Every structure is written in structure tokens, then in C-alpha cells.
Amino acid sequence: MPWIVFVFLMGHMAINQLSRQFANTPSVVDITGAQMVMVMKLSAFAWNVFDGTLPEDHLSDHQKDRRIIRHPELLDYAGYVLFFPSLFGGPAFDYNEYRGWIDCSMFDVPGTVDPVKKPPTRKKRKIPRSGTPATWKMTCGLLWILTFLNLSKWYSPDVLFTDRYMTYGFLRRTFILHMVGFTARTKYYGVWFLAEGACILAGLGYNGIDPVTGRISWNRLQNINPWGVESAQNSRAYLENWNMNTNKWLRYYIYLRVTPRNKKPGFRASMATFVTSAFWHGFYPGYYLAFVLASLVQTAAKHYRRNIRPFFLDPLTQKPLPNKKYYDFASWLATQTTFSFVAAPFIILGFKDSLEVWSPFFASPAKVYLRKMFENRSHEAGGRLSRTNSTDSINGIRQEPVLGVSADPGKDINEAIREIQVEVGKARKDPGKKGSQKEL
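^ that's the sequence the OP posted. Answer follows.
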């Protein structure tokens, strides 16, 4: 049943996204953004109801916490689906979180917390005062939107298609491309900060209290971490801090759901997550250019970190050497400039226009420099430093895709080939079944 719900939701949204794309009328109100949030909430709801029918030993801790044993009444369900502060731009959340907010069980203070440190409430309300954190989020959101309005005068996507842009040097073109991406991100920073602030003001952003300090966390529905994105030194950190609730949805309701119980996620889980994330965003060619290239960047970044980072760590203690600050700066610069390049089609959307924006890089001095580096490397010989664990693979455990971007597409392809070979081998051993050797 959950998969039927999921296919219906994605199919209905796909029709609306294609209609909007082919109509191409910016003056018409676009509902697909709100529908994307609705797909996350409703598909998660279907899985939570399904989990309520399973025995506890078949469920993870996350599933136990989110499962729905008793179906909600129509009014409760409508209130969850149409929760106004997050209706148009997110963030999405699960029904049990909404239910805990409605009956105020979310705000129950553990007995381990000193009564003196319990959060202050207004009169008989159980919801702690949230005016200050909500105002802070609103202020930050308005500042981000003001930043977008001012920067878009100079760094709108249109600047990338001017004749003057091609007359600039390579470094200046790179800077402009980065600023166009940064300007586009500030719009999302502003919208998501305002939506999160509204949820905090309502109380739904409450995420517990520190028993030692008595400090309240209001980050339950945090959807963006601008500092985490702008200061990221690797691709995984960059993606993990962007659209964080979508990452959670893809992980808990796609990546882990297509994986059989008691088995590790493999190629099928990665591919299902990639396809879902791509279709969920829409059908503009720019999305797929960005996703495919981001997967390759993930792989390159992982090998870069494994093979270059050891030069800046003590070989015995693995502690940073004094010169690691140069590695950190280079990693930050490489991550930011690379993702400015990767994300450009995500902003431009069109296939031809995306390739036109990408073309200056390949015509730049970087091409000659990279070719020289490759030739020098091909003539090198000698030992190789031991690898260190990257953020894409910890203790040999496969990491789930972030925003649908595979951490290792090469490994996924190899696993797919092995699975096909196994199926072909089974068919050859049993020619009586459909798909025998003769039929193959």
C-alpha cells in the first residue's frame, strides 16, 4: 500500500510539473513547490501507517517512534496535511510530531531535568516561550531576502549570457558564477528561515531541553544551515546542510525502504534514491545535468580526501600538522567553486543554456593546467600513502546518498553488473524456467 500511495503522489506531481514546464508562464501561480512538500508528508504518513501494522521486532527505533497505530480523525489529518506555517515551502514533518504538538506530549520535561531549569511558559500553557528564537529566525530570513534583492541586481543568471561576461578573465568569470549561485541560495535561505520561524512560534520547532544547562533546542524543523553550506570543505558536508528535511525523507522513506530487512543498502537503494530525488525536483534538463555531475564530484572528492589528506596528518597520531590549515582552505575553495559550477544548471534549467554556461571553463587556462598535471602524474612512480576514512565511507559502511546524489556511482554500477550476472547465471542453471539460456 505505501508504494501505491507513493507512485500516485509522484505521478500526480509529475503531471503538474510537466504542465508548468511546457506552459512556461511565470505569471501563473506555481503550486508544485507546495506539492513537493505534500508528497513528502503524505508518503511518510503512508509508511507510518504501514509500520503500525508490523511487529516491533521488525521495526527500527525511528520506525517505532513514527509509526501510527491508531488512525487519526479527519480533522486531525487535515490539520497535519494543511499545517499553514509549512504549507507552501516546507519544512515537512511526520504525523506523530504533529500529534505530539497538538496534545502537548512533545513538551513533557524528563524527570532528570532540575525543576529550576524547566523552560518558562505563559500562564497554563505547556508550550515554552518561543518568541525570541522565532523573532531571530524571522530577522535572519528578512536579511537573507534583502540580500537576495540587492545582489540579484548584479548577479542574476542573465549576467552569464552577456557578451561582456565572456571578455572577462577566468578568475573573474569563476567569481561571477559563484556569486550567481550564492545569490540564488540566499532566496532559499530567506524563505526557509521564515517558515522555520513560523513553526517555532507555533511551538512545533521544539526539540527537547538540555538537562544540564536547561537550554531549549528549537531545531526540530531546521531545513537549512547557511554556515554549513558556505563553509563546507567537502561535497558531503555541502549537501547535508542543504534542504535537510528532504535528506531525511529520502533516507528514511526511500533509501532504507527499498532495502530488504536485515540487509545492507546497495545499488538498488542508491539508484532508487537518485531517481526519486531527480523526479521529485522536476523534469528540467538542468536538474539531471547537476545530479549526474554531482555524483561524479562525490566520487572524485572521496578519492581526493583519502589520498591527499594524509599528507597533512601526523602518520602516528593522525593529528593535524601545522600546514593542515592550507589543506582546509584549499578544500573549502575547491568545494565552493566546484559546486558553483555543478549547481549552475540547477538554476538555469535549460539544456542548451546550461552547456553554454559550462563552456567557458573548458576553454579556460584550467584545461591546459589540468592536462599538465595529468601528464606529470602519469610519469610518477613510487609508494602510496595509506588511506584514511572519508565522510563518504565510515568503517567500511556504505553511506546513503545525500539529496539523491550517489556517494560512489562507480561502485553502484559494479554492483548492478554483478546482480545481472547472478540472475543470468541462475537462468542458465535452470533452463526450464522462463528466461532460459535459449530465450536469453
